[in-house]
Amino acid sequence: MSEGARIEVLGSGREVGRAAIAVWGPSGKAVLLDYGVNFDEEDRPVFPGHIRPRDLEAVVLTHSHLDHVGAAPMLYASVRPKLVATPLTLDVSRLLLLDMIKLNGPYLPFDEQVVDMMLEAAETVTYSDSIDIGDFHLGFVYNGHIPGSFGVLVEVDGKRILYTSDMNTIETKLMGPASFNGLSADVVIVESTYSTYTHPNRRDTEERFYKSVREVVESGGVVLVPAFSVSRSQEIMALLAERDFEYPVWVDGMSRKVAELYLEHSRCLREPALLKRAISMQNLVRGWGDRRRAMKEAGVIISSAGTLKGGPSLYYLKKLGGDPSNAVFLVSFQPPGTPGRRLVEEGVFEDGGEPLKARLEWFDFSSHTDGRGVIEALKQIKGVEKVVLVHGEYEGQELLASKIREKLGVEVYIPENGESIPV
Ligand SMILES: [Zn+2]
Ligand SMILES: [Zn+2]
């Protein structure tokens, strides 16, 4: 019955998000690395491929984004495989999972109670820890993506498999760069969200953002910054706090709660003092009175959702978008089909196609590395024989794969969902 170890891609094969990767050991049990969801055009969750919970030794959650944790509670309705994550990932995941239940409850095969059953099965870890379970030895690697995130090193059947998960190779306000120096791995499963696109220099983006914010507020306008409540909002909060920005900053949605969780686990932050200062200087929106107040004076409003798909940011856009003295500064990737994308491409907002008069700019504050960063990261790792590209679009992955083959002389796989790779 011994077959040797293999990697089975259940999600994030030739697609961004919906991460779900099973590593099978020789005795027929698996460790599952992430189990996330994507959302379709109607905003319904799309789940990864099925795996029997009783075949799992452990479920490892690399970070709190829903495309990595959103389907994990499904595995905890009957049996309780061990759940492995950092304490911060668990806290933020709970917040996001409960929010998803509120929004998508009827489409989900679990409720709040199952989420809590899952969290009860948790064994929390930090970067220096390792875990032995069944056929597997697990270690955790700093990957620079968002506070609390890690990559996973799985040792099984004499092989070392590194799953980077989403990673970032530059320094941001919240995180240091991923560091794989000194690691050795036979197989590297690496994200490829930006296979062909190269991010601009982050310091330049930060400066350009801050300069633009000042231009707008100094001439009396309000800057709306639609931002995802996990990590991106806090990045912008910290950026403004670092520069002692003296105008009012309002933070709306779940972002403030997440910022407080980040501070409770401040060891996960590169420079906790920045976020601490942000929380003490900036205002939390507590209700409709605050929302109206925030829009009356020159300043900045940081609000979810980052793509203007619902959440308070859409409300602010409708109120502020028709005035040319205001501005909308997008700080996240805007997927096709979102109001944010429509704003960028057609310059309109609201259902009636109202033209945007406020100043519109987009800034690249990505928490994912790019193709160049993937290659640099791979060069840091010793002994690599196989590279598996996941969490990316196929066209870009093909180009990145040929670059990796050329530069590193290793085998590169671009698996589809459902495909297995022997190790
Ligand atoms: Zn992801
Ligand atoms: Zn992520």
Written account of the structure:
With 423 residues, the chain is an alpha/beta fold. The chain has two domains: 6-197 and 367-422, Ribonuclease Z/Hydroxyacylglutathione hydrolase-like (Metallo-beta-lactamase, Chain A, 4-Layer Sandwich); 202-362, Rossmann fold, CATH 3.40.50.10890. It is 31% helix and 23% strand. It contains twelve helices and 24 strands. It has helices at 66-69, 87-104, 112-120, 202-218, 232-242, 255-264, 272-281, 288-296, 311-320, 339-346, 371-380, 394-408; strands at residues 6-11, 20-24, 30-33, 38-39, 45-46, 56-60, 82-85, 122-124, 130-133, 136-141, 151-156, 159-165, 187-191, 222-226, 249-252, 283-284, 299-303, 327-330, 348-349, 354-355, 359-362, 386-390, 411-413, 420-422. Strands 8-7-6-3-2-1-24 form a seven-stranded mixed sheet. It has a seven-stranded mixed sheet with strand order 9-10-11-12-13-22-23, covered by helices on one side. Strand 11 (151-156) and strand 12 (159-165) form a beta hairpin. Helix 5 (232-242) crosses helix 7. The longest helix is centred in the first third of the chain and has 18 residues, at 87-104. The radius of gyration is 21 Å and the shape is globular. The protein binds zinc ion (2 copies). One zinc ion (ZN) binds next to loops.
